[in-house]
Design goal:
Chain B: Keywords: Signal. The structure holds 2 protein chains of 2 kinds. Chain A is an alpha/beta fold. Chain A has 15 helices and 9 strands. By secondary structure, chain B is an alpha/beta fold. Chain B has helices at 9-24, 27-39, 62-72, 83-91, 105-111, 134-139, 149-157, 172-186, 194-198, 200-210, 220-229, 239-251, 281-294, 297-304, 343-357, 376-389, 391-396, 427-439, 448-460, 483-493, 510-519, 530-540, and strands spanning 2-6, 49-55, 75-81, 99-101, 117-122, 126-133, 163-166, 213-217, 234-238, 257-260, 267-269, 272-276, 361-368, 406-412, 416-421, 468-475, 499-503, 523-525. The chains are: A alpha/beta, B alpha/beta.
Amino acid sequence: MRKKIIGLVLLICVMAAVGGIYLLTGGSGDGKEKETGKTKPKTAVSGYVGGEKIGFLEDEEVLSILGEKYGLEVDYSKAGSLDMMTADLEGRNYLFPSSSIALEYYEELHGSPVQSEILLNTPIVLYTHKMVLDAFDSQGLITKDGDVNYIDMAKLVELIQNDTAWADIGVPELYGTVSVDTTDPARSNSGNMFAALLADVLNGGQTLTPEKVDEILPQLQTIFGKLGYMETSSSDLFSQFLRMGVGATPIAAGYESQIIEYAMLHPEEYESVRDDIVVLYPAPTVWSAHVLIALDDAGKTLIRGLQDEEVQKLAWEKHGFRTGNYEISDKELGVPGIADNITQVAQVPSYDVMRRIIDGLR
Amino acid sequence: MRKRKFGTALTLFLAFALLLTGCAGSPGEAKTEEKERDASAEIMKADGTIRILSGSENEELEAVIDECSQATGVEIEIDYKGSVDIMRALESGAEEYDAVWPASSIWLSMGDVDHLVKHSQSISMTPVVFGIRDSLAEELGFKGKDVSVKDILAAIQGGKMSFCMTSATQSNSGASAYIGFLYALLGKQEGMTAEDLQGEQLRADITELLGGVERSSGSSDWLKDLFLKEDYDAMVNYECLIIDANRQLESEGKEPLYIVYPYDGLSIADSPLGYVDHGDSQKEEAFQAVQQYLLSKEAQSEIEATGRRISANGVSDENKEVFNEEWGVDTERILSPIQMPDADVLMEALNLYQTSFKKPSLNIYCLDFSGSMEGTGEAQLKDAMSQILLQENASRNFLQANAGEVNEVIFFDNTILDIERAADDSDEALAQLYQKVADFQIAGGTDIYNAAAQALAEASSYDLEKYTPAIILMTDGVSDYNYQTFQEAWDILGIDVPVFSITFGTADPTQLEELAEATGGRVFDGTQDLTEAFRSVKGYN
């Protein structure tokens, strides 16, 4: 008799346990089902995206606007801006590279796209650490405007070309010579834009023209040849920069948006590195124009969705992409050293020139 | 490859136990239960199973993974492999896995040719360093000063130190150390080129240096195990695994290793865990729950307690004593790693390691042609030998013979039936040897001990300083128990040759495990994944 009662209690407890676990694990799932149950079935869009925009495309607020107002369910695969042009496009609705060079590359390979629009802008910056800033400052490379730091690109290129050891400029803790880590310029946009910038700087500050490519290209090859293995994604390079410290990545080329997004999405982690991390604006810098290439009608809807005023506002405030209408000062962003306006800008060389640079650096 | 499963069965049991006490207990107890739930509210929950292909160095994190599985509700299955092998798996689509977790992101980005990887994040960091017997480090003057790879090379070349490292073509720590050696020998700091690798001087230097490698292994954690079992001077391994080895050495009252950070040959493993997208969103959610857990404060602190670093800015106070300064651990130093060469140069360097630079292998295959192998076993064995001896097959899996390699085959039943040797390391000679295997006929009873003893005798006729020797028993493992025969040969010959076994047919590995244990070898199941078995055996030799 007693055994039976214990058995019954056990059974009840088991049922309660199963129920409890169901509640614990099933709660969030239920919520989602209800939400989606209300709206009509969504159009799934998938495409290739440069890594630096993944935070933006995974933002719940952005996704819910795209879902509710435009009926889109967005999926993506990560790929370098140039890599994605030669990837298998079967079943893809859009490509979201980071420059108009990538768009021209697309046009050369596949012809005119269904539609393409520049949706986000961000300048190329150099990320470094306090210790490197101080060394550069003492070498006369840095101009300060308030808390914004500008680096003289001509002088930086000179240090790089002369194989200047870190020890020679007062940083013996760092092994090797002064260099800027970039993504692979033949595969990913931030590296490619940095190559464009270097090309102009090496050309005496003038936009590199087709006639002068043969003169400048060997110098670019030497500079990039010294970098060894290069990451193919700007987001991977940036997270390595943040994670592995000044020894592993003294300077990394990236997008201005990256640090703003990091500070917004990971405030606690940002706080712990805030005092060490420095944004250097190359003087001059180049703009990176993030262009969405629609491969079909669903891709076109995505362009409309991302042009939505609310989405554009989120793009700047949470993800650091300058969208034109939402210029605000760094005080509001909570990231020190962000320039109000980007004024010293070099022109990215023409597609023909960039194509020869890409091929030359492959 | 080792496998491990982390289930959620315990969660059920715990919840059940909690509720049991809840049923019978006071209201006060029920409150504590609620509090616990609140604390874990931030932990993402998900269903299902994810399969991770991981570097073996993460085997040490099993307790954390287990907790992760219970906290998230995700069942986690892990297969362990060397990082270079993980890159290869990723290159061919990694169909069997939902996530990869190599030692360093370079293997992830090089392997991700199909853009399958998402959400990749570094879980921890640890530098690749030299661990040198404390008294030897003292004697060599390496303690408390900046040491270069060149200093270490000088000690090796002067015969003052021997060391073990993992195979550069399989494991990240071996590959990183090897690239560090090449830079040091080239006298370059960066920008290694394919032309550099063709240099006569470099080839001679690196071949000599790798001649000082005592024992190679396919993966870092196994190297540590091997090191603990035997008596070596030094090993190249992750800081965290040297810390782990030192804990064990000290608990056994043995001399610990002193950690040296060569300033011109350092590299950092950043342990990225990335999702492999095969289009299953439930798996993606499960993966994110697991990753989020591993990056949570609690888990990160536990991971740090295993000797891994979780920040570039030193170590947290609570785990300070793990990073014991007496062992030479230096958490203040800025870790400034060498540069990895670009992908083409790196692959060329790895190829050269496999085919030209590393110590030649001395492989003695003992093939079981006893009656119990008849049929399936025999067919599997002959097919296996075609995979390793026919170079066209072998090169597909990075198994090709290296320069100066010796291959012998001992055919056995309960007697030695025949002994054949490849004339040299050429493709033709190896193909001829294979033909002899293919033509061989099944005979009588089984005695693996007699065969292994004969193999030891064969091995002892070579200058073993010049080779990395291995005995590879290929059998169904069912033998007359005659351990004494092997033990006598081992004692008399006094040479250190590991006995690996690859099993076929209806195998019983018990006896083989005993041999492996005694000699520092391992047992592989040839019916499951033969390439894997050969890759591992080759990694060791």
